[in-house]
From TrEMBL:
PANTHER family: UVRA PROTEIN (PTHR43152:SF1), UVRABC SYSTEM PROTEIN A (PTHR43152). One of its GO terms (molecular function) is zinc ion binding. InterPro entries: AAA+_ATPase (IPR003593), ABC_transporter-like_ATP-bd (IPR003439), ABC_transporter-like_CS (IPR017871), P-loop_NTPase (IPR027417), UvrA (IPR004602), UvrA_DNA-bd (IPR041552). Keywords: ATP-binding, Cytoplasm, DNA damage, DNA excision, DNA repair, DNA-binding, Excision nuclease, Metal-binding, Nucleotide-binding, Repeat, Zinc, Zinc-finger. The keyword DNA damage applies. Residues 469-776 form the ABC transporter domain. One of its GO terms (biological process) is nucleotide-excision repair. It comes from Yimella lutea. This is UvrABC system protein A. It is found in: Cytoplasm. GO terms for cellular component: cytoplasm; excinuclease repair complex.
Amino acid sequence: MTTDATDGFVHVRGANENNLRNIDVDIPRNVMVAFTGISGSGKSSLAFGTLYAEAQRRYFESVAPYARRLLQQVGAPHVQEITGLPPAVALQQRRGAATSRSSVGTITTLSNLLRILYSRAGDYPAGADHLAAEAFSPNTSAGACPRCHGLGVVHDVTEELLVPDPSLSIREGAIAAWPGAWQGANLRSIVMGLGIDVDKPWHSLRKRDRDWLLFTEEQPSVLIEPEPGRVDHGYYGKFWSARSHVMHVLADSTSERMRERAMRFVEEAPCPDCQGSGLRPEALAVTFLGRSIAEVNDLPFTALVTLLRPVAERPAGADEVASRICTDLVARVEVLLDLGLGYLSLGRSSTTLSPGEAQRLRIATQLRSGLFGVVYVLDEPFAGLHPADAEPLLDVLDRLKASGNTLFVVEHDLDVVRRADWVVDIGPGAGEAGGRVLHSGPVADLEEVTDSVTSAYLFGRSERLVHDARAPQGWLRLTGVHRHNLRDVSVDIPLCVLTAVTGVSGSGKSTLVTQVLAEDPTARESFDRLVLVDQRPIGRTPRSNLATYTGMFDAVRKLYAATDAARARGYGAGRFSFNVAGGRCETCQGEGFVSVELLFLPGTYAPCPTCHGDRYNPETLQITYRDKNIAEVLALSVDDAARFLADVPTVARSLRTLREVGLGYLRLGQPATELSGGEAQRIKLATELQRAHRGHTLYLLDEPTSGLHPADTALLLRQLHQLVDAGNTVVLVEHDLDVIATADWVIDLGPGGGDAGGRVVATGTPADIVQADGSVTAPYLARRLE
Ligand code: ADP
Ligand code: ADP
Ligand code: ZN
Ligand code: ZN
């Protein structure tokens, strides 16, 4: 084997990151390489943790030698040598949390172009000064609406929220937003002192007094007379209206509980000054083709292209600035249309995008960057895509490849793996049982590799799930549904079966299942319970993790508190929490990490210099249970913990269900912030499964198999069918054809995305759908059912 950098290969020698077992592998450049293997096998550890991390490390060393010391703190990947490695760009799904300030326009950088267009070529009101491009951005002080600071929304209280029951008197607590206990009694005394009757029902007070009590900014001090049993001597009390009190808590209180309570009394509404656009009036007054920038931001891309194309095609000599910018805009938006994202608009907040939508936007943006000779490392770019949406994305990746780039794609979708030029299969198992290279070569040669689970699924050696066909035991009828792009939709949901809701991206599947159905009052009455298992993170701080979320950590802490050593020292269960002072490491306050400021990187984390990631102080770590301290238990994988804690019933049950949904490879202490949406969803599902429930439950799931290896999909599917066999109803949004093929019923939405979708195209058994006219899903499903 050669390690020459000029032979067209990347040579990896001695990679040991996470579970990788000192692997050597040669991977070709200028082609598309798929990294495969079950979850936890080590794909990301090789593609991101080793190859991308090393490329990034070299880059920072070259641009900022003085950052070396800091980079050493963050840690270089555990690998002996890599040669032939080009610079790399990573497009990851789970990192880079969306903020409400970022939008489709900022992710794609299209907003910058549009702002230049308005600045240079907009129609200004007579006498108005020309504005700089920044003035069209709600995220700059030049552009932000002064009232909402560019957020587009305002939070305010309303009488209905502050006084939920107007038949109560003030003494009976009519003003629910006021604090309770002593402070509340204090306010009541002040109100009496002001001559307002605290014993009359709220609705019979004068409007003027009600408004004053709720909304005034005045804060008179009032002499409170002594009140027997409450105050012995007079004092001056300060008045707070309900609004001032709520706003004060929201602005200044450090108590999360108080803030949460206060949030109940405010509602979010579009800002009345800027109609939700977040922009100053001067910016909104500028138009292009008769529309303000806010109006253009709301247009779906399909409409945006139609609007701008005539300007782009204007003959030379006309307004050149406008036509040049529009040509650029149209070309870039057309890539988004190709990718099936024509239903999105520039102004759409990134918090409402699915991970797949966000990643496709980033891929399209990269395509225009004109880079060549780089490696793009992609994290499951096809997860959550309908097969019809996958084809244009494959074309885009082909174009990136054709312009001289290399694609490293961590991927589970077998149809995509088949199209790769090369496959690196890692396994055979997860965690300790994985981390070896089973195959690195052309896809066809993977067939010979008998210990590869990927090979078994790719070449049809795996068992298919079979179950008896089930008949619906009744129907839940939804009629006249209006939400997002669903317009006057009527559809019947069958009970006691497994239903798959299908359709291309943007057709309305999530809207129907996770919003309409989840909030439908009849659904809430027809079932004993309704459980929405979504992909939202289980926690937003590294303080919450798998063990805390599932509740098993409480039992583990009790185990430690019950040891002789702990009792001798008087350590209770609280001592073993990393969230409170006592047992935790105070340097990092139990986080295990401290943040390091790097000049060129956004805040990044390094292991705590005191506890080295253990989270606890040395005294706590002296307490062991079966020779392991509590930090070592948090470092165990679910699989290992299942052996270690097999005889602790409550913990063993949690661990069993986690393994049943394919999460045996996760570590107990894995911070919530490091989990993918799919992992978070399966943790919720496992938490749900571990409770034995009676009665008829409706389970709603949004793409539960997205990002799963086919072997893990099979595991999950078995669990879902068991729920139905136990008498429950399951409705899932799904793209995986193997899953759709096993469903009892299919509801196919579409035919397209956004305005081109939102209708029920076909309903019936999978075999019925195959026969349906106009269904985009039908031809793909037909091939699967053959
Ligand atoms: P895959 O990408 O194939 O799902 P990963 O590379 O993410 O697998 O994980 C491989 C193994 O390494 C798993 O056992 C996982 O729990 C472990 N692992 C991943 N990230 C870390 C980490 N930051 N620290 C310790 N172990 C990790
Ligand atoms: P699917 O789940 O089939 O991909 P969605 O239900 O997410 O489709 O979206 C259907 C339509 O509703 C799309 O046009 C999408 O842009 C729109 N939409 C979805 N969520 C929102 C939202 N939070 N705000 C505005 N429009 C939305
Ligand atoms: Zn505003
Ligand atoms: Zn520490």
